[in-house]
């Protein structure tokens, strides 16, 4: 199964063709996209099999199948945390699409939202195979000294239930020292960061058999300040 995760920076109804032209994928996890059910006819027809979650129709998370994979949205309580979309893929893999936000939280913004979500649903995540994909808006470089739910804590919580970052496994890089940026903030080359991730159960990502890569800025920066994360897993 070949998967792409991409924060499209909005207006996905005008950009979905880029994936068809540049990449051959089975499953798409798209952040900042519109709800196809409330958008243009051509976008709705293209969307086909999809799940979507958002606070308004113009910006949310979408999961789209380009193959014969069936998608079923899961009823996992989000407890007003933002933003999470759990979905069952082909009745075999639980996929959690993520786009963390500040969420008007003074104490648990961004990665703190994911930390809280993990506490709610850790038992469900233990059920292998499991996949967590999306824009976390986070990196271990941004730790603050008095925060006990930081990026490294989230990574540790996931590793304790055998869920690991595919990028870091594949490239043998450590958290916070990534050589391939997934974000050029405000489209500026002098502001590169790694904030987009894919985590999976070890049962569906075998380093010698599967792969992961990051899209190149010369191809994608004109459309979003985020680069797509592309990987394949055993389905």
Number of helices: 6
CA-based gyration radius: 16 Å
The spatial strand order of the largest sheet comes to 3-4-2-1-14-13
Which CATH class applies here?
Alpha Beta
Q: Please state roughly what percent of the residues sit in beta strands, choosing from under 5%, 5-15%, 15-25%, 25-35%, 35-45% or over 45%.
A: 25-35%
Structural class designation: alpha+beta
How many β strands by DSSP?
A: 14
Domain unit count: 1
Sheet having the most strands: 6 strands, mixed
Classified in CATH, the superfamily is Endonuclease/exonuclease/phosphatase
CATH architecture: 4-Layer Sandwich
Pick out the low-confidence regions. none
Residues in helix, % = 10-25%
Shape: globular
SSE run:
EHEHEEEEEHEHEHEEEEHE
Euclidean distance between termini CA atoms: 6 Å
Q: Quote the average pLDDT.
A: 95
CATH fold field value: Deoxyribonuclease I, Chain A
């Amino acid at each position: 199964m070949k998967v792409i995760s991409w924060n499209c920076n909005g207006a996905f109804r005008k950009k979905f063709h880029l994936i068809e032209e540049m990449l051959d994928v089975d499953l798409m996890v798209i952040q900042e996209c519109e709800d196809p059910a409330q958008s243009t006819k051509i976008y709705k027809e293209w969307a086909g099999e999809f799940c979507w979650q958002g606070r308004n129709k113009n910006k949310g998370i979408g999961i789209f199948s380009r193959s014969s994979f069936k998608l079923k949205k899961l009823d996992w309580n989000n407890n007003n945390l933002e933003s999470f979309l759990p979905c069952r893929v082909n009745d075999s893999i639980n996929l959690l699409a993520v786009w963390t936000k500040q969420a008007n939280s003074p104490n648990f913004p961004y990665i703190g939202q994911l930390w809280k979500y993990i506490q709610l649903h850790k038992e469900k995540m233990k059920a292998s195979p499991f996949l967590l994909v999306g824009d976390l808006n986070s990196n271990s470089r941004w730790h603050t000294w008095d925060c006990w739910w930081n990026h490294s804590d989230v990574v540790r919580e996931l590793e304790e239930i055998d869920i690991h970052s595919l990028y870091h496994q594949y490239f043998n890089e450590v958290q916070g020292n990534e050589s391939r940026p997934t974000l050029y903030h405000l489209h500026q080359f002098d502001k590169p960061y790694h904030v987009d991730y894919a985590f999976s159960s070890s049962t569906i990502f075998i380093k010698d058999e599967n792969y992961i890569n990051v899209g190149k800025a010369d191809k994608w920066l004109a459309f979003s300040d985020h680069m797509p994360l592309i990987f394949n897993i055993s389905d």
